[in-house]
Amino acid sequence: MLLDIIQVLLFGLTIGAIYALVAVGLNLIFGVMNVLNVAHGDIAMLGAYLTYWFLVLFNVNPLISLLLIIAIFIPLGAAIYILLIRKIIHISSSVEEIIFSSLIIFFGLSIFIESSALLAWKADFRSIIYFEGMINLGGILLSEKTFIALLVALIGVFSFEVFLTRTYIGKAIRAISQNRVAAILMGIPVDRINTLSFGIGISLAGVGGVLLALIYPIYPALGVTWTMRGLTVCILGGLGSFTGALTGAFVMGIVESFGSYFIGTAWRDVISYLMLLLVLVLKPSGMFGKGV
Amino acid sequence: MSELLLKKKENRYGITKSLLIVVVLVAIIVVVAGAVAFIMLTPQRPAKTEIVIGAAISLSGANVETASHQANAYRLFVKQVNEQGGIYVAEYGKKLPVRLVLYDDQSDASRSVSLFEKLITDDKVDFIVGPYSSTITFAVAPIAEKYKMVMLTPTAGSDKIYQQGWRYVFELWPLASSNPKSVVSFMKTRPDIKKVAVVNVAELLARSTAAAMKDALQKEGFEIVFEEEYPKGITDLRPMLSRIKTLNPDAVIAATFFEDNVLLVRQLREVGFNPKFLWTMVGFDQPEYIEALGKTAEGVCGWIVWHIKFEDLGYPGVREFYEAYMKEYGKRPFAEAATGYTALQILKQAIEKAGTLDNEKIRQVLLTEEFMTIIGKVKYNEQGINIYNVVYMGQIQNGKLEIVWPPELATAKIWYPKPEWAS
Fold first, then answer.
1. Predicted local confidence at residue A138, as pLDDT
2. How far is B43 from B41, CA to CA, in rounded Å?
3. One fold for B51-175+311-379 and B178-309+392-409
4. What is the pTM (predicted TM-score) of this model?
5. Which fold has domain B178-309+392-409?
């Protein structure tokens, strides 16, 4: 029984780590710019396809692809910010206006990315077979790919945490999400920090995509599931908060796993959304949210 | 006086010249108007130059991966028919080319309903063919009924659709209730299978299949030790599969769709459980399945709706369809493509046999005649169910799909029990 519980806890942690990677990027973008990126899952889908193509065409190890994807997605994110978002932030007179306009833009971007992927790569399912080994830790089983996904997600999330707390740029990012006006008055180059934050947020989604490619079949409509998961986790943990996204993701993963195991998988969504509702009733801004 | 008399004499009939003109004009107008009215009011057969077939299908949204194959098959068939000059219609005494009107329902049932209504009332198509999936077909069928339009449904296998007393809906996809036939008949031959776990994804077809499986298994005395439905877009099946592992059933029956099928098989291996018999559903007979699972797929069983292997069963046109599809779209056809193609094969044969484009008469032909297609023989009963419907069971052996059941139609002997997971 104890072994079962440890096993289920491990399931929760591994799936939670992937949720965390997706949610942290989403929350970074929201925290800094009040922009709700509903195309986040679609960006992850692009990352998954790139991993697939790098492997199929050039036989690139997915872990190397991961580094390439970070290098590609930071400028991609910056470009999305400069082309689509910067103007909105400048002309909007209120936070609500930014949220609303960006929601429409990203909804459009989401459809654009999905439809382009459909045209470019057709609707077929694609999958990669990599890291197929099994790890047995004294009766507790884990596949190599899940273990690697867990490792990558943890390293990704915690190096991001170090970046946020220890570097000047990281501190500037936190300053802007805490108090935008004060940050401007203190001479923080908001526009540059926005661009960078966007790049980092998008690259985190791309890294998430690499992990998805290892575990799930890849197809153009893959994004929706992950945008929804990411948003739910962010709202649970508190929109705009790093700790919130992280805690929300692991809480969600673990509650889902135990719910599936002890109550039934059919109840997975009922349980997780009930938990979300409870948290919102008790604390409308989410577990670590900065007040609405 | 004499002048007046003279004038009267000239007009013997007592009609003045102006009156004569009026009378003649009126007569001309009456004749012309009558002729025009005659032409306009006479029911006249408009010169028919083409047969228009319409459908709404999921060209985007959640279903697009599989639905696009069905749409491709519609396009391919129409292209091929037109290359042969069209379909011969006796009532017009000639071959008429076919035009296909396809709309995108974005995988949304309510959108599909309004698009089908538009096809019938606005575009005035001669025939409709089914949309993608049981769920959407179920929503659209009342429209076919309302306008008395025959609808062959390539990808709607939920029994519920054919239990509504609908008269114009004709199925092609194996019914959920017929799925258990081959599976249970196989399991009965293995006395060491006693405990069974049945799971399904929350989709109409998968749910009906799981229900039919449980029903059939219980009737045959198998013990169902675990049953569960999991949501669409599931991200992790390991907790559920661990539960199954602790119950240690002999067989696992999984009514899946593609993504969760791959996830389920991968994660069964991950939790370290290898049942003696593992049956999965959608995705299993698709070429991408083996590519997705590699060696992990060895020994997994599943349904076959349509496969190139059918040419070994002697059905005509299987190889030709497969190669034409490959040539046209650069990829192998899914079963959805084959049943989509079959729908139009049957419609063409029915039009030729009926010699008319009248939906009521086509319906009569569908109910009385037998059709030979790339999925085998098709003959409908009053419910619109194909009485020859067989669901084959396949198994992945040495990286290839083989038909293993029913034994008289098998291309290879089944591997039982399932070999250990590849290490």
1. 81
2. 6
3. yes
4. 0.80
5. Rossmann fold (3.40.50)
Looking at A59-188, list the stretches that DSSP marks H as alpha helix, in order from N- to C-terminal side: 62-80, 86-91, 95-121, 144-166, 168-178, 180-185
For residue B139, the model assigns a pLDDT of 96
d(CA A47, CA B363): 50
Interface predicted TM-score of the whole assembly (ipTM), two decimals: 0.92
Please provide the CATH number assigned to the domain covering B51-175+311-379.
3.40.50.2300
Beta strands B94-96 and B87-89: pairing type? Answer: antiparallel
The whole-angstrom distance between A112's CA and the closest CA on chain B is 12
B39 Cβ contact list (under 8 Å, min separation 6)? none
Chain B residues within 8 A of A118 when measuring between CB atoms: 60, 64
What's the pLDDT at A292? 43
**C-alpha angle A42-A45-A48 in degrees, rounded to nearest 5:** 160
Q: What pLDDT does B45 receive?
A: 58
Residue B116 CA neighbour count, 13 Å, CB half: 31
> Is the Cβ pair B228, A220 closer than 8 Å?
no
- B82 token code pair: 């037109």
Residue B238, Ramachandran bin (φ over 0: left; ψ between -120 and 50: alpha; else beta): alpha
For testing the chain B interface, which of A42, A141, A273 should be mutated: the one with the most B CBs within 10 Å?
A141
Domain ranges of chain B: 51-175+311-379, 178-309+392-409
- Of all residues in chain A, the one with the smallest CA distance to B264 is A216
pLDDT in tens, A39-63: 999 999 999 999 999 999 999 999 9
**Considering chain A, what percentage of its residues have pLDDT values greater than 70?**
99
